[in-house]
Amino acid sequence: MVSRFITAACVFALAGCASPPIKEAATGQMAQQITVRYPGSVMSDPSRLPSFSPNDLALRCGISPNLIAIPEVGANPVRAIGAVGGYGGGSTDTEPFALITMRLTAAAWANRDTESQALLTEMLLTWAGQDGLTQISGDSVNGTYAASRTILPILVGYSLLRPALDAAKRDRLDTWAKKMVGNLRVQTGPISSRNNHRILRDSVHMAYGALVGDAGELKIGLDGYTRALTEARADGGLPLELQRGYRAIFYQRHAISSLVAMAEMGDQQGYDLYGTDVSGVTLHTLITFLLDAIDTPSRVLREASANVSVPAGTDYRSQDLGFLDPRGHGRHYMAWAVPYITRFPNHSNSIRLQKFFADGRFKHPMVDDYVGGNMSCLKG
Q: Which long-range contacts (CB under 8 A, 24 or more apart) does 163-168 make?
């Protein structure tokens, strides 16, 4: 099977349209060498500010960090992250830190808010100085997962802050980033080596490669993206996600979040991942399947009945669609919809997604760890 990175319209934020690479999925070899064309540009170009109106800028990006509990969280780094008991298993110890990072990143970049810049710099340097997030303890599968969802917003935030830092601070934070990313592991065999866990982890490697100019790390993301499309069914369903009982649709969306993040990072480097087609399957196909399943959950029940890795007592016939509503701690699982709608405003998928803004279930700012930050600000 052959997949092709097709730069159909050469639409990406930074200038230039190079010849797209061609990947032989069966061998994993690239016909053309992967390069990091714009080192330092991860999710958004640090030098290009958004052009929102003042009101939209305040709504989408935030202005003041006054309500953020920075002293408590920023001064207490979590060095070793691991698993906790029960379903989901990933530690939530770093969630407050990730949220603060995402909020400060938006204000520091979009508003050139000097207070936010200083606070974000201080906080990252404090965590770097104590080797935060550089160890995985306990269950390495869930530990890697929990670490990945925090490291991605750190890399996105740091990339936008980095140009203004002196060499000594950049070196310290670059060293820390290398330690964090280098500690992420994928165990061969478990479902997590191929499902949304793996896709999330690959997105972190891709972000790190774009940040520091490491083509090998960037390629992990490009390969992971293609792998996901290769494993998808012709209708866009992801088999490893659809087995997950009452959360089959939930995990289809989880994987899509990371794939959209990777497509946006690829765009920054001149790789049109949205246009990547594997035997007729694109990211659009996966999103169409998700939206169809939201409208008609019964379409996933045959696969969901496998009840792979779900809590006892849950019913696969009652699909969890809670991801359509804001999460209770400042995030929204559907934040990926913002860059997608922005990029493809007239696509039928976008028109369907826009209805959730119309009915109030989606509201700016749309922020989530799994796509790396405040998408309403960075990609809106």
A: 163/40, 163/46, 163/47, 164/117, 165/121
Burial bucket for residue 53 (CB in 10 Å: 0-12, 13-18, 19+): exposed
Q: State the Cα–Cα distance between residues 75 and 87, nearest whole angstrom.
A: 30
Q: In Å, what is the CA distance from 232 to each residue of 32, 244, 284, 344?
A: 25, 15, 12, 22
Q: Give me the domain span that covers residue 84.
A: 2-378
The domain tally of the chain equals: 1
The partner residues of 285 in beta bridges, in order of sequence, read none
Give me the residues paired with residue 304 across strands: none
Q: In this structure, what token pair is assigned to residue 143?
A: 């530990």
CATH number at residue 214: 1.50.10.100
How far apart are alpha carbons 7 and 20 in whole angstroms? 6
CA distance 156 to 371: 9
* 213, β-bridge pairs: none
Condensed to tens digits (0 to 9), the pLDDT of residues 134-181 reads 998 766 788 889 999 999 999 999 999 999 999 999 999 999 999 999
pTM of this prediction? 0.90
